[in-house]
């Protein structure tokens, strides 16, 4: 499905669509769950509650995009909230695991730096092109493996298993970051159309 035009005739960004939709509500729920989940991880809370909140977060992540497509409520708000919830959840829980000593600090720094650069690039592109870009599938796969790595750390998996997942995550996160860089460069090279001013008309050549 082609991406919806999100620009006004004067070049300003259009409203990001309806905010209060079921898919956006699922993304917001995941964003809220990140804080009690990270707190329980940090304080060695009951494992059953940690796993219950983690499972609920995973379910909301699985359903929000699908519900948006099924109900025809895909919006630019969803394109922002979904990856934002993923990044906040992964960042907070990873930080809690680092403090506990269950994840290495370098891995947390790597994940946060990658996410920060992707967010910065997305913001720059939105400002330049007046469009909100969806997450890439390579990024979704990388985040899924990252979630498995975090889950393995929570369950105190054997060191070889955790180390293997850490490096698989690094490879996939690096590859997806490269794909985001390629998209950024290609989109940045496209010159944005000049905005139309009041009273200006559009002519077409045939």
From TrEMBL:
Q: Which GO terms describe its cellular component?
A: membrane
Q: Which UniProt keywords apply?
A: Lipid biosynthesis, Lipid metabolism, Membrane, Phospholipid biosynthesis, Phospholipid metabolism, Transferase, Transmembrane, Transmembrane helix
What are the GO BP annotations of this UniProt entry? Answer: glycerophospholipid biosynthetic process
Q: Which PROSITE patterns match?
A: CDP_ALCOHOL_P_TRANSF (PS00379)
Any one GO MF annotation of this record: CDP-diacylglycerol-glycerol-3-phosphate 3-phosphatidyltransferase activity
Q: In which pathway does it act?
A: Phospholipid metabolism; phosphatidylglycerol biosynthesis; phosphatidylglycerol from CDP-diacylglycerol: step 1/2
Q: Would you tell me the protein name for this molecule?
A: CDP-diacylglycerol--glycerol-3-phosphate 3-phosphatidyltransferase
């Amino acid at each position: 499905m082609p991406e919806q035009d999100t620009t006004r005739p004067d070049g300003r960004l259009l409203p990001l669509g309806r905010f209060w939709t079921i898919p956006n509500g699922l993304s917001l729920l995941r964003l809220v769950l990140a804080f009690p989940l990270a707190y329980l991880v940090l304080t060695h809370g009951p494992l059953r509650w940690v796993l219950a909140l983690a499972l609920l977060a995973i379910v909301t992540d699985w359903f929000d995009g699908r519900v948006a497509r099924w109900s025809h409520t895909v919006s630019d708000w969803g394109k922002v909230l979904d990856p934002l919830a993923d990044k906040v959840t992964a960042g907070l829980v990873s930080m809690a695991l680092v403090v506990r000593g269950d994840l290495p600090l370098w891995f947390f720094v790597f994940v946060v730096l990658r996410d920060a650069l992707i967010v910065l690039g997305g913001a720059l592109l939105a400002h330049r092109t007046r469009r909100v870009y969806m997450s890439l599938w390579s990024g979704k796969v990388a985040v899924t493996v990252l979630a498995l790595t975090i889950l393995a750390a929570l369950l105190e998996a054997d060191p070889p298993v955790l180390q293997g997942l850490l490096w698989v995550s690094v490879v996939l996160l690096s590859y997806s970051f490269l794909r985001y860089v390629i998209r950024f460069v290609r989109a940045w090279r496209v010159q944005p159309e000049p905005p139309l001013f009041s009273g200006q008309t559009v002519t077409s050549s045939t």
